[in-house]
Amino acid sequence: MAYTLYITGKNHPISEAAWIDFTAQNPEFHPDPLNTINPNTREHLAFSGALAYRQGKAVFVLIRGRIQFRAHDLEISLPVAQHIAAALNAEILGEEGEMYSS
Description:
Layout: E1 3-9, H1 16-25, E2 30-31, E3 34-37, E4 44-47, E5 51-55, E6 58-63, E7 66-71, H2 74-87, E8 90-94, E9 99-100
Antiparallel strand pairs: 1-7, 1-8, 2-5, 3-4, 5-6, 6-7, 8-9
């Protein structure tokens, strides 16, 4: 089971413009439409307008001023998150508020 981590601005929310600009300057990030299945109806849902980008196996999504991602393998996803955090003057927090070095 994966753990959700958050990249949050140190003194500000991360703007859509900053996230889009970051991904434009880092071509290893590719747009990734969000796809999910409704657990009640089993209906397949796709959210193409979301600000989700994939880098390798990790998907980073901007939601309400912070970027979240599922940490399936921290050895792979944490260095990518640290790169994002450094570029956006942000920090990395876990689900329970614990801070990861950035």
